[in-house]
Amino acid sequence: MSYRGRFAPSPTGPLHDGSLVAALASWLDARAHGGQWLVRIEDVDGPRCPPGTDDVILGQLAALGLVPDEAPVWQSRRGDLYQAALDRLIAAGLAYGCACTRAEIAAAMGPRAKHGELIYPGTCRPENGGTQGRPVRAWRFRVQGRIDWQDRRLGAHSQDLATEVGDFVLKRADGLWAYQLAVVVDDAEQAITDVVRGEDLADNTPRQIALQRALGLPTPRYLHTPLVLAADGHKLSKQNGAAAIDIGAPQERLREAMARLGLSAPPVSPALGPWLAEAAARWPGGHFGSGS
After folding, report:
1. Which residues belong to the annotated binding site?
2. Which of 66, 111, 212, 228 is a Cys-bridge partner for 61, taking CB atoms 3.0 to 4.6 Å apart?
3. Which residues are catalytic?
4. Half-sphere exposure at residue 177, Cβ-oriented, CA atoms within 13 angstroms
5. Any idea which positions bind L-glutamate (predicted)?
6. Can you tell me the distance from the alpha carbon of 210 to that of 212, in angstroms, rounded to the nearest whole number?
7. One digit per residue, pLDDT tens: the chain, 292 residues?
C-alpha cells in the first residue's frame, strides 16, 4: 500500500514549537517516502476547542508550506463512524456499558496517575453483574492480554493492558467520543499507513492496536518523535503556556524544528518550496540525533 501519513492537531490553541515539530516530522516522513500527507482536526473534545482555532492552525500550516494533499477532515463531523464502530464492539461482546463514577473507581482501586486516569477494576463487566440497573454513564472496551509493538525510533515495546490500563472508555459520560476510538476509526477510514507523532503519545499505541485488532482494522507503522520541553523540563504544551509560533519567518521556524529533531537544515532559500524539498531529502527515516 502506498504511504499515507497525517498530522492530527487538537485545536485547543494555535500551533506552538512542540506541535510544529510533530507537524514537520510527519510531513517530512511522507515526502521522503513519496507518499501523501493529510491533516485531521481532532476536535472530538469540543468544549476544549475555542471556535476558529482550527482555521488558525490550518493558516499556520499553509504559511509554513505544509499543505495537505487532501481536504482536511474534522472529528466532530464523524460521529456516525464512531458509533458504528462502537456498535460492532458491543455486538462482539468487546464493549459494555459502565455506570461507575470516578469516585467509585477511586474508592475501589485508589488513585493511579498512569494515563491521567484510574485503572478500571471491571466492576460493570457483564460477568460481574453489569450495571445492576443503574444508568449507563460511559462505554468501555474490554481489554485482554499483552500488546507487543515496534516503534520506528523507540524500538520494541510491550504493555499488559489488563494490569497497566484496564478497560478504557470509548464513549464518555458526557456523550463525547474518546480519543482512542476516534483515532483508530479515522486512521483506518483514511487508509493511514504511518503515524508520526510526539513521544508523549507512545503510551496510547497499545490501546489503539488492541482496538484495531478487535475491529479487524490494519495497524499502521508508528514513529514517535522527540518531545520539545519547556523550561521546567515538562513537555511544551498549551497547558503550560507555550506561545503560538511566529510565522513571519517560516524558514527560520522550520529550521528550528529540524534542529529539535536532531537534523541539520538546508541553507536559507529564496523560495520555501525548494527548501522544503531539500529538507525532505535530509530526512533519516526515524533515526534522530545524528545531525545528519
Report:
1. 6-10, 42, 98, 100, 120, 124, 179, 197, 238
2. 66
3. 238
4. 23
5. 6-10, 42, 179, 197
6. 5
7. 699 999 999 999 999 998 999 999 999 999 999 999 999 999 999 999 999 999 999 999 999 999 999 999 999 999 999 999 999 999 999 999 999 998 888 888 755 544 456 789 999 999 999 999 999 999 999 999 999 999 999 999 999 999 999 999 999 999 999 999 999 999 999 999 999 999 999 999 999 999 999 999 999 999 999 888 655 555 555 555 567 898 888 999 999 999 999 999 999 998 999 999 999 999 986 555 433 3
